[in-house]
C-alpha cells in the first residue's frame, strides 16, 4: 500500500507540468513566467458620488478570489455579464457593508501590479456591463 | 528483511498513529463542516462554470446543488466517525472517499487550489492503515495484538507524501520557468500579480505584499531558499533533528507566503503536514491522564 500511495502522489511528475489536477497535482502555482502587467475582469461598486468600491469576492459568487475571477471571466465568455451584474447587484442590496453602493460596473482592467500597489496608479479600465443596485 | 524494509517498518507507538488520526480527522471535519455554505454556493454556479477535474471527471454535468450538499454533509458525518475511530474499517475508507469527492468537486469550478491536496492524501493513507487500534471507539485502549506490520510505516508514509508534494512543486518551477526562476524577478512578479488580483477583487492584500516590490533583486534569496527547501524535502524522512529543522523551515516558508501573498495553507501552518515527526500522542495522553484523575476524584 505504501508503494501504491507513494507512486500515485509522485505520478504527476510524468505529466506536462501545467496539466494540473486534484488531489494529484503538479503544483504549478507560482512557477509560470509573468510580467507585472495584467489584464483581468472584476466587478466594482459605484457610490452616489461616483467613488469606486471594490467588492468582496463573496458578492460575485465565491469567497475565493480566483474562483470569483473565473466566474466573471466565464460570464464574459458566455455573454452573460448582464445577468451576473444583476445577481451581484441583488447581493450588494442585501449587504449593509455596501449600503452606499448604487450601481455595479463589471470592467476589464489592465494594470501594472507594482504601479498599482506601490504608487496607487490605476490603469486602463473598459466597462463591460453596468446595472443599478435595487434599493 | 533488508535495511530499507527495517527502516520503513521501524516500530512506533500505536498511540502516536492514533493521535495523528485524531488531529488530522478533527481538521478535516472542521474544514468540510466550516465550508458547507461555500460548497453549496459553488455548487449553484451552474453548468457553464463546471470544469471537472480528478474523480469528478466521471460527470458530464454538475450534480444538483442539493445532492452536492448532501454528499458534503454525509462526508462530515463520516469524518466524525473517522476521527472517533467508530467502525473504522468501514467508515474510514468511506470518509476518505467522501473527502476526495467533496473537495475535488469544490475544485471543479474553473480553479484548482493547492491548499487541500495534502489533507486528502493524508486522510486516504490513514483510512487504509490501522490508525484506530488505540484511542478509538473500536479500541479505547491499545489492541492486545498489534498490527502485524506495526505502526511506524504509516507515519513514514505520511511524511513521504508530504515530502513528494514539496518536491513536485520545486520540479514544476524548474520545468516551467527553468533556472530563471532563481533570479527572483518571477517570484516578485507573482507576488505583485497575486496582490493586484486581491486588491481589485475586494480581498485583503498581504501585510508585507507591497514592501519589497520595488526591489526585485531582493527576491533572489527568497527564490533560491524556496527551491532548496522544496527539493530537499525528502530529508524529512530521516526524522530526528534534521527532519524537524526541515519541517520548521517549511512552516516558515508558509508563514512567509501569508505575509507576502496572504495565501493560507492551513494544514501545514497548523503543523499537521509534519505531525508524524512529532510525539503527537503526548498532548492527548496528558488530556487522558487529567480526565482519568478528574473521574477518580468524582466517582459516580
Structure description:
The complex is a heterodimer of chains A (135) and B (300). Chain A is an alpha+beta fold and 135 residues long. Chain A has 2 domains: 1-33, no CATH class; 37-132, no CATH class. Chain A has 4 helices and 4 strands; from the N terminus they run H-E-E-H-H-E-H-E. Chain A has helices at residues 2-10, 65-77, 81-93, 113-119; strands at 37-47, 52-54, 101-112, 124-132. Chain A has a 4-stranded antiparallel sheet. The longest helix of chain A has 13 residues, at 65-77. Chain A starts with a helix and ends with a strand. Chain B has helices at residues 3-8, 14-33, 36-43, 65-84, 88-106, 117-127, 152-177, 185-200, 219-231, 240-261, 266-269, 281-297. The relative contact order of chain B is 0.12. Helices cover 61% and strands 0% of the residues of chain B. Chain B has 2 domains: 13-141, no CATH class; 164-291, no CATH class. Chain B is globular. Chain B has 300 residues and is mostly helical.
Detail the topology: elements first, then pairings.
The complex is a heterodimer of chains A (135) and B (300).
Chain A: H1 2-10, E1 37-47, E2 52-54, H2 65-77, H3 81-93, E3 101-112, H4 113-119, E4 124-132
Antiparallel strand pairs in A: 1-2, 1-3, 3-4
Chain B: H1 3-8, H2 14-33, H3 36-43, H4 65-84, H5 88-106, H6 117-127, H7 152-177, H8 185-200, H9 219-231, H10 240-261, H11 266-269, H12 281-297
- Return the structural class of chain A: alpha+beta
User: How many domains would you count in the coordinates of chain B?
Assistant: 2
Largest interface chains and counts: A-B, 59 and 65 residues
As residue ranges, the low-confidence spans of chain B are none
The total of helices of chain B stands at: 12
Extended strand count of chain B: 0
The Rg value of chain B, from CA coordinates, equals: 21 Å
Q: Give the strand tally of chain A.
A: 4
Oligomer designation: heterodimer
Please bin the fraction of helical residues of chain A. Answer: 25-40%
Global shape of chain B: globular
Mean pLDDT across the residues of chain A is: 94
Q: How many structural domains are formed by the residues of chain A?
A: 2
Helical segment tally of chain A? Answer: 4
- The low-confidence runs of chain A, each spanning 5 or more residues with pLDDT under 50, are none
Strand order of the largest sheet of chain A: 2-1-3-4
First-last Cα distance of chain B: 52 Å
Biggest sheet features of chain A: 4 strands, antiparallel
- Estimated helix fraction of chain B: 55-70%
Amino acid at each position: 500500500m505504501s508503494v501504491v500511495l507513494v507512486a500515485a502522489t509522485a505520478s504527476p511528475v510524468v505529466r506536462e507540468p501545467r496539466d494540473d489536477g486534484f488531489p494529484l497535482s503538479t503544483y504549478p502555482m507560482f512557477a509560470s513566467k509573468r510580467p507585472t502587467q495584467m489584464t483581468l475582469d472584476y466587478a466594482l461598486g459605484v457610490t452616489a458620488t461616483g467613488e469606486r468600491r471594490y467588492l468582496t469576492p463573496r458578492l460575485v459568487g465565491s469567497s475565493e478570489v480566483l474562483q470569483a475571477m473565473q466566474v466573471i471571466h466565464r460570464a464574459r465568455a458566455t455573454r452573460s455579464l448582464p445577468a451576473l451584474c444583476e445577481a451581484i447587484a441583488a447581493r450588494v442590496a442585501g449587504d449593509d457593508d455596501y449600503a452606499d453602493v448604487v450601481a455595479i460596473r463589471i470592467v476589464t482592467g489592465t494594470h501594472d501590479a507594482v504601479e498599482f500597489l506601490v504608487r496607487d496608479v490605476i490603469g486602463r479600465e473598459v466597462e463591460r456591463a453596468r446595472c443599478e443596485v435595487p434599493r | 528483511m533488508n535495511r530499507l524494509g527495517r527502516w520503513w517498518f521501524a516500530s512506533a507507538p500505536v498511540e502516536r498513529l492514533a493521535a495523528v488520526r485524531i488531529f488530522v480527522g478533527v481538521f478535516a471535519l472542521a474544514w468540510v463542516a466550516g465550508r458547507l455554505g461555500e460548497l453549496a454556493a459553488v455548487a449553484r454556479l451552474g453548468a457553464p462554470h463546471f470544469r471537472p477535474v480528478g474523480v469528478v471527471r466521471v460527470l458530464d454535468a454538475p450534480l444538483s446543488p442539493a445532492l452536492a450538499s448532501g454528499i458534503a454533509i454525509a462526508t462530515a458525518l463520516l469524518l466524525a466517525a473517522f476521527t472517533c475511530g467508530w467502525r473504522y474499517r468501514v467508515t474510514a475508507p468511506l470518509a476518505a472517499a467522501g473527502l476526495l469527492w467533496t473537495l475535488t468537486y469544490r475544485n471543479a469550478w474553473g480553479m484548482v487550489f493547492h491548499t487541500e491536496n495534502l489533507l486528502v492524501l493524508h486522510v486516504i493513507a490513514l483510512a487504509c492503515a490501522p490508525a484506530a487500534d488505540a484511542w478509538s471507539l473500536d479500541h479505547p485502549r491499545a489492541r492486545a495484538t498489534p498490527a502485524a506490520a506495526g505502526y511506524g510505516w504509516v507515519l513514514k508514509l505520511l511524511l513521504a507524501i508530504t515530502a513528494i508534494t514539496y518536491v513536485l512543486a520545486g520540479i514544476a518551477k524548474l520545468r516551467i520557468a527553468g533556472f530563471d526562476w532563481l533570479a527572483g524577478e518571477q517570484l516578485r512578479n507573482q507576488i505583485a500579480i497575486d496582490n493586484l488580483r486581491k486588491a481589485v477583487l475586494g480581498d485583503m492584500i498581504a501585510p508585507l505584499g507591497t514592501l519589497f516590490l520595488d526591489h526585485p533583486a531582493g527576491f533572489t534569496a527568497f527564490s533560491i531558499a524556496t527551491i532548496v527547501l522544496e527539493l530537499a524535502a525528502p530529508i524529512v524522512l530521516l526524522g530526528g533533528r534534521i527532519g524537524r529543522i526541515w519541517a520548521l523551515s517549511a512552516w516558515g516558508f508558509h508563514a512567509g507566503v501569508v505575509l507576502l501573498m496572504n495565501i493560507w495553507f492551513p494544514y501545514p501552518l497548523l503543523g499537521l503536514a509534519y505531525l508524524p515527526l512529532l510525539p503527537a500522542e503526548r498532548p492527548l495522553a496528558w488530556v487522558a491522564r487529567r480526565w482519568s484523575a478528574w473521574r477518580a476524584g468524582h466517582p459516580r
